[in-house]
Amino acid sequence: MELNRNGAAVVGVDDHFQRSLEAGKFVIPRCEDCGRPHFYPRILCPHCGSANLRWVEPSGRGTVHSTTVVHRRNDETYNVALVDLDEGPRLMTNVTGIEPAAVRIGMPVVAVVGKAAGAGPLLTFEPGEEQC
Ligand SMILES: [Zn+2]
């Protein structure tokens, strides 16, 4: 985490996360004191309250915890899902590369950075390999 000489964050954690995605990197904060990662990014560890956080790159692998198909007025549909990263944190995201209704709970997914078209989200997930 970037700090100024008063110890305040120079770049907000949301900005840092967004800038990393724009640079093609998916990062999450991990607590140096209790060792647990979290998401969404916060300035204090939600597990132990420590400010001693470091950005780490997760494996990108996860599992669909819940899934929803959103129908838009123009008949377009897209998927919104909660994905549990292998590292633990759960995040809200979009599963792409598959019909929105074909996304299943328990499906393995992998993070994809920067493939969304236009002004869409930079971080999405696609179906991954079944783990045997
Ligand atoms: Zn902690």
TrEMBL record:
Occurrences of domain ChsH2 C-terminal OB-fold (ranges): 55-112
Residues in coiled coil: none
Pfam name, any one: OB_ChsH2_C
Residues in ChsH2 rubredoxin-like zinc ribbon domain copies: 22-53
PANTHER family per the UniProt record, alphabetical: BLR3430 PROTEIN
Designated name of the protein: Zn-ribbon domain-containing OB-fold protein
Originating species: Saccharopolyspora elongata
